[in-house]
Task: structure prediction
Amino acid sequence: MYHLGYYVTHIILLLLGGRLKTENKEKIPASPFVVVCTHRSWLDILYLGFAVWPVQIHYMAKQELFSKKWLSWLMTKLNAFPVNRENPGPSAIKIPLKLLRKGKVVGIFPSGTRTAEHVSLKRGAVTIALKANVPLLPAIYDGPTTFKDVLKRKPKRVRFGNPIILKTGKKATKEEIEKTILQLQETFDRLEKM
Result:
């Protein structure tokens, strides 16, 4: 289903909105890793997926998207898994760790929600990458945030930064996690200005 979803949405968005420019694709490490991206619109989910193809991303998504049976089925088939953003339980860590241990790639938007504002990043992505001992791959999406803007064929790009290599962190301190979050935010800021 992921392959079908990729080809259908990619062709539609390519025909309607033009090509995506992917910058620094050579920085994508070998799987497994956690890819973290800025989150302004539902479009950045799609374009990030296009940018890392043929690697498949398993996205952490808000549990509200799984409320209807057919939508839950579709989201699961598209490699998404639910998380309660207000009260994340053990599954918020266990599911992505299990995927990473199987050599998969996990996608997390560390702002926790779609926003154009500068917000503090949540700890989940860094904690998961530390526990799994995998790199964090920072990415930014710059382009249309509405379908209307896609139809105007506005430029769009995904730019990757250098992977943040973390030491084995099963017992990472709060200070180490906060330091990595700050490093990640600085990387996002730098990628946005390039």
